[in-house]
Specification:
About 40% of the residues lie in helices and about 25% in strands. The chain is of the alpha+beta class and about 160 residues long.
Length: about 160
């Protein structure tokens, strides 16, 4: 009885290939692997850098929004609302503008055109714009704009 027939030349060739692979990688293979790794890592660094920039921009806009809400909330509380434009800046680089104007509908300054009785309140539109300063790229500065209506007592002497 004889077992399966084995071709010695095939075994020797397979053995030589296995030994050749066991020796290691060629210089070209190592260089190609390093280049692929470098490209992948630079793409990954770009993704993380973009995420960090987006997080920073979101943080600045959140800060600007909080300041705009603060300005809107204090309008008419600390001092009476007077029509006009007021502006300023904060120490941390926010530039703000607040505009106060009479709000009217249907051509009547009171906003109550159909009412035969003169209302005791006037509506004032308070608009606030807060911009985040971007010294590196001024054309890319971002801003938050908020607007609200405030009811204020009509002056007694006004007709």
């Amino acid at each position: 009885m004889s077992g399966p027939r084995v071709n010695r030349s095939t075994c020797m060739t397979t053995h030589r290939v296995a030994r050749a692979r066991a020796r290691g990688f060629t210089l070209v293979e190592v260089i190609v692997a390093v280049v692929i790794a470098a490209v992948a890592l630079s793409a990954l660094a770009g993704v993380f850098g973009g995420g960090a920039r987006a997080a920073s921009a979101a943080s600045e806009l959140t800060r600007a929004n909080a300041y705009a809400e603060s300005l809107i909330a204090s309008a008419g509380v600390e001092k009476p609302l007077v029509d006009g434009v007021e502006s300023g800046s904060t120490a941390d680089g926010l530039r703000w503008t607040m505009t106060v104007a009479d709000e009217s509908t249907d051509g009547d300054e009171s906003g109550f055109a159909a009412s035969p009785i003169r209302p005791l309140l006037l509506l004032k539109r308070v608009s606030v714009r807060v911009a985040v300063a971007n010294d590196a790229q001024p054309e890319r500065s971002r801003a938050i704009e908020l607007s609200t209506l405030r009811a204020v007592p009509r002056p007694l002497l006004q007709q």
